[in-house]
Amino acid sequence: MGELQLGVVESRFADMIWKNEPVSSSALVKLAGEELQWKRTTVHTVLRRLCDKGLFRNDNGMVTSIMSREQFYSLQSEQFVDNTFHGSFPAFLAAFTKNRALTDAERELVKQMIDQAGEE
Questions:
Q1: What is the pLDDT of residues 29-69, one digit of tens each?
Q2: Which of 31, 42, 51, 79 would disulfide-bridge 38, Cβ 3.0–4.6 Å?
Q3: Which of 37, 66, 62 is nearest to 50 (CA)?
Q4: Residue 3: count of CB within 10 angstroms of its CB
C-alpha cells in the first residue's frame, strides 16, 4: 500500500467508524450530524473516499474496517519515520529525545520493544 494520509476531519470520522463498527451508513449519518455537523451527502462523500483509500468497506449500507485503527496508525508512524528520517529509527529516537529526556519507565519500555523486535 502506498502513502495513506488523512486530514484532521477525515481522521475524526475514521475514528468514529472504528469506535462504532460494524455500523450502518444511516447510523453514521446521524453520528456525524451530531458530532461533526455534517449533512448526509458529506458523510457519504467522505465515507466513499475512505473506502477508496482501503480503510473501510461499505457492503449494502453496513460499514466495517479493512484496516484496524492500530494498523492504520502504525502505518502512519512508519511513513513518518521513512519520510522524515530516511527510515532510520535511531535518527527518529535521537530527534525525539534531543529536547526531552525519557523517563526510566519509557527507557525500559523502549528496551523491551527493541528486544521483542529482535526476536521476530
A1: 999 999 999 999 999 999 999 999 999 999 999 999 999 99
A2: 42
A3: 66
A4: 9
Helix (H), strand (E) at residue 58: strand 56-59
Grid cell of 117 as nine digits? 523486535
Calculate ∠ Cα 35-22-16, nearest 5°. 25
> With 80 as the cut, is the pLDDT of residue 70 above it?
yes
pLDDT value for 119? 77
Q: What is the largest CA-CA distance in the chain?
A: 51
Domain boundaries, the chain: 8-69, 88-119
Taking the C-alpha atoms of residue 21 and residue 4, their distance in angstroms, rounded to an integer, is 21
Rounded to 5°, the CA angle 42-74-29 comes to: 20
What does residue 55 show for φ and ψ, rounded to 5 degrees? Answer: -85, -40
What does the pLDDT average to over 102-112? 91
